[in-house]
Specification:
Blueprint: H1 20-26, H2 33-46, E1 53-61, E2 70-71, E3 79-88, E4 94-99
Length: 114
């Protein structure tokens, strides 16, 4: 008995399509930057961390189409997105996150996770 193989995909866009090419030429995270900042500000309003903050990196496995995904050979999931984060050492609460998008305009990223 054959099953119906039709799928419906839904896509949510968080940017303006007419200015997308111009925005992404200077900022690779432009399509979702506002949503990402909103989530981070909610994290920061929800919890006041103590003085023990640590910077760390997180590798989120991802094999989709993304201009800043990375390939790291020794990782179990070799493809993904690298995040820098500032986390409270006691409760492991992520106070701030930054997506590593690589060099932008010839300059390396600075203040990762802060």
């Amino acid at each position: 008995m054959a099953r119906d193989q039709s799928f419906t995909f839904y896509v949510i866009y968080f940017d303006v399509k007419t200015t997308r090419i111009q925005q992404t030429s200077t900022d690779k995270l432009a399509p979702i930057r506002n949503v990402f900042k909103s989530i981070i500000s909610t994290f920061q309003m929800a919890y006041t961390p103590n003085e023990h903050i640590t910077n760390d990196e997180q590798f989120v496995m991802f094999r989709g189409e993304c201009p800043f995904h990375m390939f790291i050979q020794p990782k179990p999931g070799k493809y993904g997105i690298k995040l820098w984060l500032a986390a409270e050492a006691k409760n492991f609460y992520a106070c701030n996150k930054q997506v590593h998008t690589g060099k932008s305009g010839g300059e390396s990223e600075k203040k990762q996770g802060l």
